[in-house]
Amino acid sequence: MQDQQEQTDRHKTEWKRKKQLSKKLLFLLLFLCITALELLVFIPKVKETMAKADIPSLIAKESKKQENNTSLTSTVYFYHLNGTLRAYHPSLDKNNDLYHGTFEVLLKGPDKTVLEDLSLTYIPEKTRLLGITVAKGITYLNLSADLLDSNDLTKAINQLKATANGLKAGNTFVLLIDGKAYRQDS
After folding, report:
1. How many Å apart are CA 25 and CA 17, to the nearest integer?
2. CA gyration radius for the chain?
3. Which of 23-32, 42-51, 123-132 has the highest mean pLDDT?
4. 143 — phi, psi (to 5°)?
């Protein structure tokens, strides 16, 4: 009798395991059916939307833009309101000379991004780039005398030096004002 009871208990335990396994398989099958149905319904809609938006051609256009990138990145320096020089990295037209283009951007003054970052320039707006030459590790920067009208000439020159150093054109920086060497102590 005890043997029969043990057999009955085993059958009940086995039946419970099979029932639990059946429930798990049923839930898995249900999940797979719902997922398949969603895919059948939504994939065509996604494809239709992509076709309407012409996404493949947009991707192709963006890839061509990146291949034909016509800009260089430069580094110019402006003063933050906390008194420190901050580097900014504007894009330059690839057809322009890197040195000339960089200083033209600096002399143009801060753009919206720089201003939003609370940075400014001490280089007067009227200052013109008369020329830039890099030779034998020396950067010669020739600017108009309008630079001398700066509210803080030392900071203006620091901006110029930092920008020149960022170009890694030379170890020495020589500032010319209207073609004549400028000494900061004069």
Report:
1. 12
2. 35
3. 123-132
4. -120, 160
**Helix/strand/coil (H, E, C) string of 8-59?**
HHHHHHHHHHHHHHHHHHHHHHHHHHHHHHHHHHHHHHHHHHHHHHCHHHHH
Task: With cut-offs at 50, 70 and 90, classify the pLDDT of residue 123.
Answer: very high
Alpha-carbon gap, residue 53 to 163, rounded angstroms: 44
Residue with token string 């590790």: 137
In the predicted structure, residue 77 carries a pLDDT above the cut 70 = yes
Token pair in block for residue 118: 């609370």
How many CB atoms lie under 10 A from the CB of residue 77?
Answer: 21
Q: Tell me how far apart the alpha carbons of residues 121 and 115 are, in angstroms, rounded to a whole number.
A: 10
Q: Choose the weakest-confidence range: 25-29, 50-54, 106-110, 127-131.
A: 50-54
Q: Give the span between the Cα atoms of 121 and 80, in whole angstroms.
A: 9
Give the separation between CA 161 and CA 137, rounded to whole angstroms: 14
80 within 8 A of 71, measured Cβ to Cβ? no
Both tokens of 122, joined, read 């001490």
pLDDT single digits (tens) 140-167: 999 999 999 999 999 999 999 998 888 7
Q: Alpha-carbon distance 151 to 163, whole Å? A: 19
Which SS3 state, helix, strand or coil, does residue 120 take?
A: strand
